[in-house]
Amino acid sequence: MDDNLREIVLGVLAAGVTTSLGWFGRTYLWHRRLRRTRRFLGLPPHSECLLVVGRKASAGEGTVSRDDAFALLELSALIKDCGAHAQVLSHDTVRQGIGERTEFCIGGPGSNRRAAAHLHSLLPGVRVNTDAEPGPDQASFTVGGERHRMEKGSVEYALLARLTAGEGTHPVFVVCGQRAVANQAAARYLARHHARLARRYGVDGVFCLLLRVVNSQAYGPDVVELVADVTQAATSPQAPPQGTGGGRRRARN
């Protein structure tokens, strides 16, 4: 074998080894990211999860808004990537505890009873105005004593939370927006940023984020800003108003 042929053969072998190492490296990193995503979402291969959706505001039971349906699609794609299966249920038909299966609960307490239960049990520091009458505080969020009002079509807020409780190991994801378009925006935020959230809070972490949807009238659910991490305020019970404490004051003589 002359020198030129030897160099060609060695070059081909080196290229093959480099390509193989690159392929194995990329495959390893892909599987590593997938394992991390599955653990963060509580979705091992072939597992089942719940997609719980509320009814459309000002509509009859069983009616789902278009934006909530889009939110379901955003999450369904994420679930499929993990190799898991989803069961879509109406908010008033779910009868299971927390942690038995991963749950994605979409909607606010005014349209989703399951969301109302999660807010009461797991996010006691959050108050949502569910009054049907129009007004400046309609659908407003109060978190840790700070109020966030909705400006329909201009500024809307959503809460995105990963919560755990009970004896089970699977998380509950609460997607609670002031409007259905905010629900979709929060679901899309989770689908796009789940890897970053897993790095920041850990694959078993608990968090509650306040998101702001900007100019949904023009941009729909595409422009979303992270306002603050409100985990501590949202998971801590609100202090009772002054003068209405649980203990009775002694009468003075």
TrEMBL record:
Keywords: Membrane, Transmembrane, Transmembrane helix. Residues 233-253 are annotated as: Disordered. It comes from the Bacteria. The chain crosses the membrane at residues 12-29. This is Secreted protein.
